Amino acid sequence: MSDILHRIATETASPDGVYQALTTIDGLAGWWTTDTTGKADVGGVIDFQFVPGGFSMKVLELQPGELVRWEVVEGPEEWVGTKVNWTLKQSGDYTVVLFEHLGWKEPVEFMYHCSTKWASYLLSLKSLVETGAGFPSPKDVQISDWH
Amino acid sequence: MSDILHRIATETASPDGVYQALTTIDGLAGWWTTDTTGKADVGGVIDFQFVPGGFSMKVLELQPGELVRWEVVEGPEEWVGTKVNWTLKQSGDYTVVLFEHLGWKEPVEFMYHCSTKWASYLLSLKSLVETGAGFPSPKDVQISDWH
């Protein structure tokens, strides 16, 4: 098993802004993809569509201001069954976000791509929370020939 | 052991530009840190200084246009002994860069940070090769309270 791990922090006085951006359809559409639909409650499924394809995430757990856990229920075969964890903590003037995309069966080249692409979306999340404007798909940063 | 993996691609007709950016002091100073010194030949040690500290990399292997391998010989204790591999390949109009920072003893929070920070530096490398201007330290993107 291989994992993608990232850490960013937003300059914010509480985790509320990040938590909203991770747990509401409008919030998610503001940094990941504008084409976000579905139900964001626990047990709900959120559908994210991008230019090359899409993913559906089942919301496994929500702890306000602290934790968001998803399971990938539809998407590229390498993604299905993997889990995404968002752990939030306040550290002085910053909200720290620990991101984990866990349980890749093999470290295939597509995983290398997704690792870098996740980082660019995390910077979009940071921008959304700090400035009110992210850069979600289809206005996302193109990192390679794989978009 | 845990690994950081990334993939970017530059819109370039051959790997020459990326290879130069990875194997010359001037090239490295153009995307990673302006404070880059040392010897970039095989067996040489390159010193990279940043605002929070620095790293020294021993150049283990150079295959022109294809592969660059480093070993971390000085720096934060979590980095010493880890290895960094750069694998290049041409795919149509793009030079694909597979990046690996291998052999972290534990997936500590600092590794999460370095994973995201590497991604931001890879985008700086892409910018340097495609446009002639990167954004190396101290003009790098600040991703968090950890710089």
Secondary-structure arrangement, i.e. CATH architecture of chain A: 2-Layer Sandwich
**Oligomer designation:** homodimer
The backbone outline of chain A, from C-alpha atoms, is globular
What Rg of chain A is obtained from the alpha carbons, in whole angstroms? 14 Å
Taking pLDDT < 50 over at least 5 consecutive residues as the criterion, the unreliable ranges of chain A are none
Give the terminus-to-terminus CA distance of chain A. 25 Å
CATH topology group of chain A? Alpha-D-Glucose-1,6-Bisphosphate, Chain A, domain 4
What can be said about this structure in brief?
2 copies of one chain form a homodimer. Chain A has helices at residues 16-23, 25-29, 109-131, and strands at residues 2-10, 35-38, 45-49, 54-63, 67-74, 83-91, 94-104.
Could you explain the architecture of this structure?
Chains A, B: It comes from Kribbella qitaiheensis. Chains A, B: InterPro entries: ASHA1/2-like_C, START-like_dom_sf. Chains A, B: Belongs to the AHA1 family. Chains A, B: This is SRPBCC domain-containing protein. The structure is a homodimer of 147-residue chains. Chain A has 147 residues and is of the alpha+beta class. Chain A has a single domain, classed as 2-Layer Sandwich (Alpha-D-Glucose-1,6-Bisphosphate, Chain A, domain 4). In chain A, 24% of the residues lie in helices and 38% in strands. In chain A, strands 1-7-6-5-4-3-2 form a seven-stranded antiparallel sheet. Chain A is globular, with a radius of gyration of 14 Å. The relative contact order of chain A is 0.23. The model of chain A has no long low-confidence stretch (mean pLDDT 97). At the A-B interface, β1, β7 and α3 of A face β1, β7 and α3 of B.
